[in-house]
Amino acid sequence: MRKRLRLRPPKTNILNSVFIAIILVLTFSVPAMAKIVSSEELVENAHLYDGETITFRGEVIGDIMVRKDHAWIHLNDDPYAEQPSKLAGYNTGMAIWCKASNTERINFIGNYKNRGDIVEVTGVFNSACPKHAGDMDIHATNIKIIEPGYLIEHKFQTDKLWWALVLSFAAVALLITNKLRHPK
Amino acid sequence: MIPRPRASDFKNIAYYSGKVVFGVGFLMAIPLVVALIFQEWNPALDFLIGMFSCFTVGLFLQIFFHSKRDLNWLQGLVVASFSWLLAVALGAIPHYLSGHFGSYVDACFDVMSGYTTTGLYLLQDLDHISYALNTWRHVLTYVGGQGIIVIALTFLVRGTGGAFKMYVAEGKEEKLLPNIIQTARAIWLISLSYLAVGSITLGIIMICSGMSTVRGILHGIWVFMGAWSTGGFAPQSFNIGYYHSFLFEIVVIVLIMVGSFNFALHWAIWTGNRREIYKNIEIISFCVTITIALFITTVGLMRLDVYPELMALFRKGFFHIASGHTGTGFMTVQVRAFVSQWGEMAMLGVIMAMAIGGSACSTAGGFKGLRIGIIFKALIHDIKKILTPETAVVVEKFHHIKDTVLSEKHIRGAMLIVISFIASYALATIVGVYFGYPLIEALFDSVSAGSNTGLSCGVTSPSMPMPMKLVYIMVMWMGRLEFMSIFALIGFIVAAVRGK
User: Fold this and answer.
1) Does B172 score more than 80 pLDDT?
2) Backbone phi, then psi, for B318, in 5-degree steps?
């Protein structure tokens, strides 16, 4: 009888199990998805996060390097991703390996002329990725654009133009003086 | 009694320094053209200001300190060290005007790091700099590798006696050809030939690996310049780890190794003497010391099980040992990973590799393989003397382009420079420890700066104390010029103040 009960549990037990399973999944997955980890924290505590599913947020910089059906992107989560105009130290970030199709929505890549899209990725962090010869990376399963990038406006600096003109006149004057004083 | 320098000494030094600074101005035309091509107008103005500042200072020195006399040894040494300082101060103008530096000292730090092919940097927000500034960073390191004096000799200096003294004072001794101007041109011939082949190879790999054509070409040129000059600057903050390409890393390793070889060895191979590569003391020394450093690092990494995969272990370990030993400073791991992942034993292996460095008369820094080889030969010689009868004459030889009998002069010369390097590493480490950095971290970055390597475990940063920045600038400068020129400049200043 007991054996039979174990093999064929009553309907209510099945419902309870499903309910508990949902609770467990939500308990362990939702906070993991919600927790945004910084690159600094990942590098300093790489062994703690190794193999964990994490969420990472940062500015797309450099290039989208498509390799067959996947692609490499690099996200910087440094202060420049939030406030581009002020100096705040080095760039910090993380390499992301994702499906190439996931990068199609990225419009702006950070460089001198653009501020890149701010992107949030969820995926598995690898302190020494076995697939990519020990690289520290995140294998993204989900990518979403949080904030679109934009063109950076570099205002023409007229004061620099004046300095350049003054110095060019000085250089030409000295060149002429040199020719006159020391003819070859 | 120290004789006070005469007016003619000052005139000669100022005149030839003016020529070198004038040459630096011409170099700024390269990033200027890049700025114009990519319509980066403000950086274009930065380089115009920098260029005309160099021309103005260079011409001023040449006009008002005009000299037709050839340089003597002291003047040659002082010109090399003084013109490097001037070239740094003026070369830093476009850096500072870019707005990516916290102070002018930070900009000078990066320019000194470039010229000395170190690769440490204080530039902030590297991933958003202009193509022009990125080009300038790499031109600095490419030119610094060959030597800015070599440039001046190639294009701007006539006569050979004083030219040779300036050439030697910049840390190079080999005469590839009887004439020193021809030697300087031969160095450029070698470097430009590799530039063409290396840049195209790296560019093609990156275009095939998903980069756009324009960026692939630019990255190919930039990374080649950083690799060949064993400089270590890279266009992105992720350094070589940015590219995620095994093939790219292999080509880079080949380039940094070839770049770290003696120009005399290159010339011997170019002119058909291919057997030299198997016999040369520097190559043998390099192979032995790189194996020892790799062994130490691998044991350290295996002990902490950092890379469970054997391929990953070799790829990461060998890349950084090669990068350190050649004095390059390229990285494929995150800066702080040395501390948080690699651990002290692996770091010690890298420190050893960095301290030894590449070959003499190359673009590399550190003790140099030739000196390590000579010191090892001297040790063997002494052991042989102990083991043989007192009346026996023990002769030890070493092969470097030709067979040479080891003499006291060789040993003394090698020991003097090695001791000076150790002193500079120690000085920078002590300063780092004083400012609160852990010993291993302070040692790592200090050796990196002193040996002109450029690997960092996170000590070097824009927020590091100002005295440390100044000490690092000094040890980079001393390491690149191999001390003698700096000692000469100090002696010259002391003589000017206290001499009679």
Assistant:
1) no
2) -65, -40
Q: What are phi and psi of B478, to 5 degrees?
A: -65, -45
Q: Is residue B364 part of a domain?
A: yes
Tokens of B108: 């000078």
Whether the CB of A176 is below 8 Å from some CB of chain B: the reply is no
* pLDDT surpasses 70 at B440: yes
**Measured between CB atoms, does A80 come within 8 Å of chain B?**
yes
In a domain, A175, yes or no: no
ipTM for the complex shown:
0.89
User: What is the Cα–Cα distance from B468 to B319, expressed in whole angstroms?
Assistant: 28
Indicate if B217 and B294 belong to the same structural domain.
Answer: no
Chain A residue numbers touching B36 (CB-CB < 8 A): none
Per-residue pLDDT, averaged over B220-224, amounts to: 97
Considering only alpha carbons, which residue of chain B is nearest residue A116? B128
- pLDDT, tens digit (0-9, with 9 covering 90-100), for B21-62: 999 999 999 999 999 999 999 999 999 999 999 999 999 999
Task: For residue B236, give the nearest of A62, A67, A177 by CB distance.
Answer: A62
Shared-domain flag, residues B35 and B137: yes
Range of the domain at A12: 1-34
Report CB contact under 8 Å: B59, A72: no
Residues B20/B148, Cβ–Cβ less than 8 Å: yes
Report percent pLDDT > 70 for chain B: 94
Residues A3 and A40 in one domain: no
If one counts the domains in chain A, the total is: 2
Same structural domain, A145 and A124? yes
- Helix B7-27 with B148-155: angle, nearest 10 deg: 90
Block means of pLDDT (10 residues each) for chain A, 184 residues, are 44 59 51 74 96 96 96 96 84 97 96 96 96 95 95 95 97 95 79
Report pLDDT digits (tens) over B121-134.
Answer: 999 999 999 999 99
Considering the domain boundaries, does residue A89 fall inside one?
Answer: yes
CATH number of the domain to which A91 belongs: 2.40.50.140
Say what the pLDDT of residue B168 is: 66
Per the CB < 8 A criterion, the answer to whether B485 and B80 are in contact is yes
Residue B358 has pLDDT above 60, yes or no: yes
Of B276, B3, B31, nearest to B133 (Cα)? B31
Please check whether residue B442 lies inside any domain of the structure.
Answer: no
Residue range(s) defining the domain that contains residue B331:
274-420
Q: Is B314 in the same domain as B203?
A: no
Residues A72 and A53 in one domain: yes
Picking from B389, B420, B451, the residue at the C-terminal end of a domain is B420
Contacts of A112 in chain B (CB under 8 A): 40, 128-131
Query: What is the C-alpha to C-alpha distance for residues B108 and B101, in angstroms, rounded to an integer?
Result: 10
Minimum-distance CB partner of A133 among B40, B211, B246: B246
Strands A93-99 and A70-76: antiparallel
Q: What is the pLDDT of residue B500?
A: 76
Instruction: Give the total number of structural domains in chain B.
Output: 2
Domain boundary among B195, B227, B259: B259
**CA B313 to each of CA A4, B1, B297, B299, B339: distance values in angstroms, whole numbers, following the listed order:** 54, 59, 10, 10, 16
Angle at alpha carbon of residue B42, lines to B220 and A60, rounded to 5°: 50
